[in-house]
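Internal ticket #5521
Category: modeling
Description: The requester needs a full-assembly model to guide mutagenesis choices. All entity lines are attached below as received. Residue total reported by intake: 750.
Assigned to: D.W.
Attached entities:
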Amino acid sequence: MDIIKSSRDNLPVLQLKGRFDAHEVEPVNAWLAEHTGKGEARIIVNLEGMNFIDSTALSTLVRGLKNCRERNGDLHICSLQQPVRVIFELTRLDKAFDIFPTEEEAAKGF
Amino acid sequence: MIPEISAKHRDAFKSLSAGWMRVGATCVQLLRGDEVLIGCPTSSLCNEPSLLVSSFASGLTLQIYGVTDPRWTPTAESMLDIFANLLTVDADLDNLTAALVETQDRLVALYELTQATRRTLDINSLLDLLIKQSQHLMDVDGGFVVLKEKDGKPLVHQVSERPIHPAHAEAAATLYMRDPSRHIFKDSETVPLELRNVMMVTLPVRDEISAAVGLFNKTGKFTTPDIKLAKAIAGHIGAQLENAMLHKEAVERARLETEMDIARQVQTAILPQSIPQVKGLDVFAESNPAFEVGGDFFDVSTRQDDTLVFALGDVTGKGMPAALLMSMTHTIIKSASRNMPFNHPHQVLNRLNHDMASDFSNVGMFTTVMLGLVDCANCKLHYSNAGQSPIYFIPANGEPALLEAQDIPVGILDAVEYTTQSLSLSVGDVFVAASDGFPESRNPAGEMYGYERMRTFLSASRHLPAREIASALLADVNTFCGTHPQDDDRTIVILKFEKQDEKRIMFNESLIVRATYEDIRQPCERLRANLDQAGISEEVASLCELSLQELLANLVDHAYEGDPNRQITVRMAGSQKQIFLQTEDTGVPANLKMDEVHMPEPEDLAEGGYGMAIIRSLMDEVRYDSTQGKNIWTLVKNLK
């Protein structure tokens, strides 16, 4: 999996590409901890290039989401691809996250 | 010819002579040339001067001795005239009597001829009889018959006793046929040197045969009654000859019909009585023989390796020879197909050609044949085509193609290397091998149904099952032909590639991996590759991969509790019907009831518990067994 760290409108953006599974959660966990541990946490996770996600990876994102919301912030997800959207729907986590079609909309959604 | 003077005339001569005696004659004589026909007195020395009158017309002379007075000359001339007339009448009477006797003879002979010919239906015997009877009745040296069919070579029939050169007989017939009103030939220009005279009459047989009888070397000369008699004989024999020819044709036709029956029986016997069915393939084959059996044959059989072999061919020619060669060809194809090395139909044709080339060329025949092998497991059709046409390939989604024959027919050349072509098959593809009896069917206007029309029709019918494609095509051809009869056999083999065998295993493998998040990726990736290759949809493949990933990650976390030195065995198999996944570990037995597993509520924002819930919602069957230290998870996904 490729991890690309960037920002949009001063919001931290994490872009994940490829296969996001249990083996890949550590660096994502670290990044989320870094950006949700202080102040008002508003972050964007861009899944445009992701084609597979497992439940461990999903749990990581859920932990990040909880941390953000505990600090009056949020974790916005954008650019879901169909195979991954199916998994979000299967776990009903599409109802837990705010999911946006594009990174720009995700930024404006805060 | 003037006959001898009859006794009646002698008396008349005596009384007339007596009158002359009274006027002083000593002797009266009637002569023809120097010969004394009659004299009175019958013998006497006649040296006195005499009165002499002659008639040039009859060649008679009357000499009266002892009378010289020229006044008696008219009387003598009258007497000579009387005798000349008497003798002519006598001669005519004799001729008439002879002719009457002869006519009677001839009537008897004709009657005998009729009786004799009634008993024979052999053409040569009848011609012999014709010549011999004519010879006998007309007093000729011999005879001949010349028969000539339209555009055919003349045939000369003679009897062995008195043959002439056949070329002379032909020449005489040609001369006669140029002008059939002239029957008698006797001048040296028209009659061959070896003959004195020839008489020709027509032998009336049937319109398509010109025939003439020639009779030659008549003692004396040919007369008009001879022509009439010869015509009568020829007329009679001609009618009988026609009967004989009809009889011969009937016998020949009966023989041919018997032969056709046998040929038909052979053909019917070698054609398969039922078409074997192969999973994944819709096969139909049939042959509709024409009234006069052609040489079409076909065969469809399965082999032990589950491949299907089919053949379709057409032996040239008809009747017994074609039927025999067809049955030999069929036998060789059948036995060679069974031992055919995988994927190589051309080797069967090489063998067939090698075995049969001399048999075919001995009778001037050959056979076209297409031999195909369908390998459903690998979705391939391999075929070798020795001159068979038409062959069509109609892909489920694509332009239908007429596949030209790559190789020459079997039985033409001894040393031929045949070749194999291959097609990849997809679901819905249709392959049609047919005999030329389909495209070359004609309508009453003489137009052919045609290869293009057949291609278009097959293209439009490709969605139908194989049997219905065949019957629809046959119906279309019959509609096209209308009242025109079927000229040739119509034989067809149709294969339609269907959905795969549901029970057939598409993949089946097992691997052993270390229990780490990184290593469990390997079986997941293998599963995904197998599913993609089997043509499983991306979504189903993705969800199966997710299920395996969840199960393996669960074992890493809970069975082995993160110990990277433990191992998991993974088995995966797939058919068109289901996907089967199994893991085996020796870690801590699971303490889990699957029917109590539920997906966490989204508002709870649970940080775990999704994995087994994903498996439960995606898989149709989840089983867990733990015995003798082995924990076995079995997941089954049914496919639609």
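Resolution: model delivered.
Comment from assignee: Chain A has one domain: 2-108.
Ticket closed.
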